[in-house]
Design brief:
Rossmann fold; binds 1-deoxynojirimycin; about 30% helix; TIM Barrel; about 725 residues; alpha/beta; 3 domains; six-stranded mixed sheet
Length: about 725
């Protein structure tokens, strides 16, 4: 398709309508020409241009997509196909674990495969682009959207971002979808962990910790990018010229489609940044925002701005060109239905192959937080009590569930039934609701626990208590769940808690008193089978936490790579000594970033650094011997952290700079090595230029971010 020629044929109005995104259902549910009815009248779309709108979101199933595209093209003057966009976040119909969980696998190949599976299911249902990956750095467990992220570490976020984009987009083949990385930028730093709240940080922090994951997604080829709801240095992202034009376009060279978040362009008025729609349109177009998601400032005001000479038509042309190019890249001009196929949707959705991948992914994502020998359970024991509000429900697939379904999700109870032939005693015990105080089910649960050889107790958050606009000021389990837990533990100490959550929780009591805790996160469609694989030891847990679990909510935001201070707290024994600390809580987490146990034991020894001086352009190698000294085959993610002791700006106490996931048989050992180059040591110093500064460094290798063993070297 000759895109430039096509562009030259469009009137100014038609071009402006390409920049608008409305909901797909608008086209589905009203057969009259004037389809903008009900809540959608707020779009203020001129009837003449209804069928010239450029893109739609939140689509639906294959049959609908075909209808919508056909109806649109039949009525459209220019016959430029719509792009269908949707949030395909952790699967489409087959759901794999939430992203925070999947990242706990530290397995980028797995993340790529899962994204490719989601793309396949979505593409045959007519989706052309997914609003994913969400790569916002997430340091605050109060924020509900941490579940969509890959957690608190920039290095891991970059790896996951890259893998996910590759999985979605592949080579832009039939079963791929375009990827829209989001939310640019720093949405994860909302103050107080309260969704949509203000964000404020230095440009150095932004560049050092928050921006790299968006850049990694773009470098991996992401076709599109979504701006955030929040301000960046006082200016809402959707109209932030420095952020979008100067940094993203000019400095990074991104020429893909930039879309606002839902109504976020219009919300610049609520922010108090723009007085009216005209100011919104002016600021957004100057920032080079291409698509306004479900608000109407462009269609209402851009023409006027061009006529007044305040905006050049060429600015609009550039945006339209980017959108048309994406349509062309997706092959929509040749085949507006692309890969949409109800038959293939029926074939691929929740097919055995996809279920198998989702099940494997859920086993790799789970994190064993504690185990005093309760797990794994033998399948030879006579009876198991399966208890808890999350034991007999499919509602463990996780929020942002796209077309996933509870009735297609394997509950823990069903998973255990599938794996175990002994007696199962089930009781719900209590409700998962945060408000519930109903204790009436506890006695039945206690009876079930008493008459069983072991108990699997499923506790946690309701799956819709995390996600967008699900910020929390309390991070513990509801008291009713603790009441149930205490009674069950008294009735049968051979109890393992299986936790379902979309965020780190403050589970101090569980840590102190429970014999075993297996964190499944929100594990997806095959959650129950995966849980059974783990509790019976068919799969050995190997996930490592992607976010620190706080000791108490008052520590949030909490992350392992904090800066040292003038008054560091060097030991937990120090009380009240005018060092940075709390008088009523430790500084450190309940469980640190990178933490996770196994049914086997890994012993680290023979730590070695190839030299203690690194020349410019040179390389050192740090290595460690890891031996499986336990009874089970197991996987271990060996982590390397670096500390720069003195810099032109202060440096974190330690930063992840490499990891390797290995699998060892009992008795097997392997040397794991990490190369250290200038790149490994580089950071944004006082001049905001990324480079390695000369001086002393420490290199740590260990099982998690709390590792203490290090060697020192000097960069010349
Ligand atoms: C708002 C969310 O912030 C964003 O992540 C999502 O892609 C859009 N809604 C569209 O659903």
């Amino acid at each position: 398709m000759d895109i430039k020629k096509l562009l030259s044929k469009l009137t100014l109005e038609e071009k402006i309508y390409q920049l608008m995104q409305i909901r797909a259902y608008t086209y589905l549910y009203d057969s009259s020409l004037n389809i903008i009815t009900g809540p959608d009248t707020k779009y203020g779309i001129d009837e003449k241009y209804v069928y010239e709108v450029g893109t739609v979101l939140n689509c639906g199933v294959a049959e609908n997509m075909i209808k919508i595209q056909e109806k649109y093209l039949a009525n459209s003057k220019n016959k430029i196909p719509l792009i269908f966009m949707q949030d395909v976040i952790h699967g489409y119909r087959t759901l794999y674990p939430i992203n925070l969980g999947l990242a706990s696998s530290f397995d980028t190949d797995l993340a790529e495969k899962c994204a490719a599976m989601a793309a396949k299911e979505a593409s045959v249902d007519g989706i052309h682009l997914t609003f994913a990956p969400m790569v916002d750095l997430a340091r605050d467990a109060r924020w509900g959207r941490v579940m969509e992220s890959s957690g608190e570490d920039t290095y891991l976020n970059c790896k996951m971002a890259e893998a996910t984009v590759k999985g979605y987009q592949g080579d832009f083949g039939k079963y791929n979808v375009a990827s829209c990385v989001k939310h640019f930028a720093a949405y994860g730093a909302a103050e107080g962990g309260r969704d949509y709240n203000t964000v404020d940080m230095s440009e150095r922090t932004l560049r050092e910790y928050y921006l790299p994951s968006y850049k990694a997604a773009i470098d991996a080829g992401a076709s599109s990018l979504m701006t955030a709801f929040n301000v960046v240095d006082g200016i809402p992202a959707a109209g932030n010229k420095w952020l979008v034009k100067d940094l993203l376009r000019d400095e990074w060279g991104f020429n893909g489609v930039v879309i606002s978040d839902y109504a976020a362009a219009y919300e610049m008025i609520n922010h108090g940044f723009c007085e009216d729609e005209k100011e919104v349109a002016y600021n957004a177009i100057n920032a080079t925002l291409d698509i306004e998601m479900v608000s109407n400032c462009y269609v209402l005001k851009l023409k006027e701005l061009v006529e007044e000479g305040k905006v050049k038509e060429s600015q609009i042309d550039e945006c339209v060109l980017r959108i048309l190019e994406l349509k062309d890249k997706l092959g929509l001009f040749d085949n507006p239905h692309r890969s949409t196929s109800p038959e293939e949707a029926a074939k691929f959705h929740v097919c055995p192959e996809h279920r198998a991948l989702a099940r494997y992914a859920a086993t790799q994502s789970a994190v064993l937080l504690k185990n005093e020998g309760v797990l794994p359970l033998s399948k030879d024991i006579g009876s198991i009590a399966v208890i808890g509000p999350l034991a007999n429900t499919g509602e463990i697939f996780g929020n942002w569930f796209c077309n996933g379904r509870a009735d297609e999700t394997i509950s823990v109870l069903d998973g255990i039934k599938n794996a175990y032939t002994g007696v199962i005693n089930y009781a719900e015990g209590c409700s998962v609701s945060r408000e519930s105080t109903d204790e009436s089910g506890i006695s039945e649960a206690v009876e079930a626990a008493k008459k069983s050889d072991a108990v699997i107790l499923c506790l946690g958050e309701h799956q819709f208590d995390n996600g967008e606009c699900k910020s929390k000021a309390f991070l513990d389990l509801p008291e009713i769940q603790y009441k149930l837990y205490r009674e069950i533990l008294k009735a049968n100490p051979n109890t393992a808690v299986v936790l379902f959550t979309g965020r780190p929780l403050t589970i101090r009591e569980l840590k102190d008193t429970s014999p075993a805790i297996l964190n499944m996160w929100e594990p997806g469609t095959e959650g129950g089978n995966a849980c059974a694989d783990l509790i019976f030891g068919d799969v050995n847990p190997s996930g490592k936490l992607t976010m620190s679990f706080p000791y108490t909510v008052g520590q949030c935001p909490l992350y392992y790579n904090y800066y040292t201070t003038g008054r560091p707290k060097v030991s937990d024994d120090i009380k009240n000594a005018y060092v940075t600390s709390y008088i009523d809580s430790p500084n450190g987490p309940l469980y640190p970033f990178g933490y996770g146990l196994s049914y086997t034991e890994f012993e680290y020894s023979d730590f070695n650094l190839s030299g203690d001086v690194m020349e410019r352009g040179g390389k050192l190698t740090a290595s460690v011997k890891v031996k499986n000294v336990g009874k089970y085959k197991g996987k271990e993610t060996v982590q390397m952290y670096i500390r720069d002791l003195f810099g032109s700006t202060v440096r974190p106490i330690k930063e992840l700079r490499g990891y390797e996931k290995i699998e060892l048989m009992p008795g097997e050992e392997r040397v794991v090595s990490f190369d250290i180059t200038e790149d490994t040591l580089a950071f944004y110093g006082s001049d905001l230029v990324k480079k390695a500064e000369s001086g002393k460094f420490h290199v740590f290798i260990g099982k998690n971010s709390a590792c203490t063993h290090f060697a020192e070297f000097v960069l010349k």
